């Protein structure tokens, strides 16, 4: 029985989009309540902080107010966080075809698992909020195994957890270098979905890695699996 | 202009109640999804952990699964957390008369502030979600000043922040020893609301601290202020 490993963010569900809208909402609220910057200044500063600290850092708004005022402003931090979370949870949805395709893959007898760079509970929270968690036998996160994709170790640990071999497994993800190349290097097959890469870059991949399947959308998985 | 300092939890809004319901919901979800305990066993274990670690510890569910399985179960932790937060935010409301009485006190010219034992952002989050934050000039938390009620220091710092003196201020809270006695020791007046103390204990307070006003409900504040 083949195993399909999925990335989560922007593979099963669109997080880049809601993160942007949620950050805009948070900045709106903070500026309306007295943060002495224009909307775009504040948004740009937040983006800088996210680039600097990474998106898994959980004190972006604390740092934003600290940079503006010289110390934290708890009211604005709370206003930002509440707005961010309200919008995020309102918008958190799987891609339109994610559920269909997961049901299809289960009906074909595949075993499914997740390999995600991110915090364990945060990634589980997304799966649980969307009721996707029952499809997956294992969820392997970089936090849990202390190794990030594309390093081989996280893929090897995932194969072990699923009690399978690389030649019987496929890695599906939206990031070529992180998900697909990482999987290939561990001996898996690779499928690139929803990548947003330029046509030039895609052609380069087609030339150098002809074994990689490239699809626009997770709904096309049933053409290959 | 007199300053009135309020405690938050179970003074402005009822948190004991929603915490219980939210915990029950979380335990339900965890047991339904495989936690191998009865509902009451799991609930009691959670209560033990809360007593042991305090209610501000943010890994109660992690520890619960660790104690049951010998290691964390991220799916059950996420299911517990999501259920807890959904129920908590659905039930988070000020007491029926809180808003009326805050408007009344502002109309009488009082300045208002909050003194709370708890985490700064978590306490602000409650005020912000309920749109109560605009009533208060300052929110002083034990996390921020590293001193908890009933210690004098947090009251003194609060007086300083509000630029006022103890004799011009009143502390309003639901815990006699923590809020009211703490305020009295710092030289403030004290009002005990919503205390849930036995009639015997209340009579003892009436005898030993005749200057303390005791009311059942925050809505009765307008009889004294």
TrEMBL record, chains A, B:
Stretches of the chain forming a coiled coil according to its record: none
GO biological process: small molecule metabolic process
UniProt keyword terms in alphabetical order: Hydrolase, Magnesium, Metal-binding
Domain of life (superkingdom): Archaea
PANTHER family named in the record: GLYCERALDEHYDE 3-PHOSPHATE PHOSPHATASE (PTHR46470:SF2), N-ACYLNEURAMINATE-9-PHOSPHATASE (PTHR46470)
Protein name from the UniProt record: Glyceraldehyde 3-phosphate phosphatase
Example GO molecular function: phosphatase activity
Protein task: Catalyzes the dephosphorylation of D,L-glyceraldehyde 3-phosphate in vitro.
Cofactor(s) of this protein: Mg(2+)
Record has Metal-binding as a keyword: yes
Family: Belongs to the HAD-like hydrolase superfamily.
């Amino acid at each position: 029985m083949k195993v399909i490993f999925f990335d989560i963010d922007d593979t099963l569900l669109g997080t880049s989009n809601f993160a942007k809208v949620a950050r805009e909402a948070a900045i709106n609220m903070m500026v309306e309540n007295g943060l002495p910057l224009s909307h775009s200044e504040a948004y740009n500063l937040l983006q800088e902080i996210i680039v600097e600290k990474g998106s898994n850092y959980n004190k972006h708004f604390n740092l934003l107010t600290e940079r503006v005022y010289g110390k934290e402003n708890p009211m604005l931090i709370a206003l930002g966080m509440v707005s961010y979370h309200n919008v995020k949870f309102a918008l958190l949805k799987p891609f339109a075809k994610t559920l269909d395709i997961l049901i299809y893959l289960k009906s074909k007898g595949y075993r499914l698992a997740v390999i995600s760079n991110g915090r364990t509970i945060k990634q589980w929270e997304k799966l649980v909020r969307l009721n996707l968690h029952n499809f997956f036998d294992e969820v392997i996160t970089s936090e849990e195994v202390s190794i990030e994709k594309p390093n081989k170790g996280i893929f090897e640990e995932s194969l072990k957890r699923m009690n399978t071999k690389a030649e019987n497994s496929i890695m599906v993800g939206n990031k070529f270098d992180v998900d697909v190349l990482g999987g290939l290097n561990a001996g898996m097959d690779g499928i690139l979905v929803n990548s947003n890469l330029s046509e030039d870059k895609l052609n380069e991949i087609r030339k150098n890695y002809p074994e990689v399947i490239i699809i626009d959308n997770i709904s096309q998985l049933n053409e290959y699996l």
